[in-house]
Amino acid sequence: MLRSRVGTIRPVNEFLDFKRVSKPKSMNDVQKRVTYNLAYFSANYLIVFAMLSVYSLLKNMLLLFVLVFVSASLYGINYLKGADLNIGFVHLTTSQLYVGLLVIALPLGLLASPFSTILWLLGAACVTIIGHAAIMDKPIESAFSEEAV
Fold first, then answer.
1. Upper half-sphere CA count for residue 103 (Cβ side, 13 Å)
2. Which of the residues 8, 19, 58, 84 has the least number of beta carbons within 10 Å of its own beta carbon?
């Protein structure tokens, strides 16, 4: 699936073709443009969403830390393969490690405000992607293919 998506990435000069930018004539025109452009530039829009996701994580470093911390901790606990962790005089079972991770990660995760970050990401992605799809006119070739149908 990833290879098929990579094959449909449109070149940057086509994605940002300022010659095709125009004001839609009506809401019907907006709907047609958005429908066409969402299908045509879908791989490019996934890249835009990924870039906005990386930006939002870089702007919220605590959330990035929590995600890396939880991922590394889960990897470390799974690396033990069910065995207990023995460090000097400390003896911890797998369930104690999971509970400890929960006790540390849950307050940190809530403090990192993941809900506001997700809402910002969804809003920014919708405005950017739908805005681009609405102002990009269809290419001339698509008008001729529609008349033939």
1. 6
2. 19
User: What is 12-47 written as a DSSP string?
Assistant: HHHHT-GGGB---SSHHHHHHHHHHHHHHTHHHHHH
Neighbours of 36 (CB within 10 A): 17
The pLDDT tens digits of the residues spanning 6-24 come to 778 998 999 998 999 999 9
Longest dimension (CA), the chain: 79
Q: How confident is the model at residue 147 (pLDDT cuts 50, 70, 90)?
A: low
Which tens digit of pLDDT belongs to each residue from 116-130? 999 999 999 999 999
pTM of the model: 0.82
Task: Give, in order, the Cα–Cα distances in Å from 97 to each of 62, 89, 102.
Answer: 22, 16, 9
Backbone angles phi, psi at 60, to 5 degrees: -115, 80
Alpha carbon distance 28, 134 (integer Å): 11
Count how many Cα atoms sit within 13 Å of the Cα of residue 27 in the half-sphere of its side chain: 0
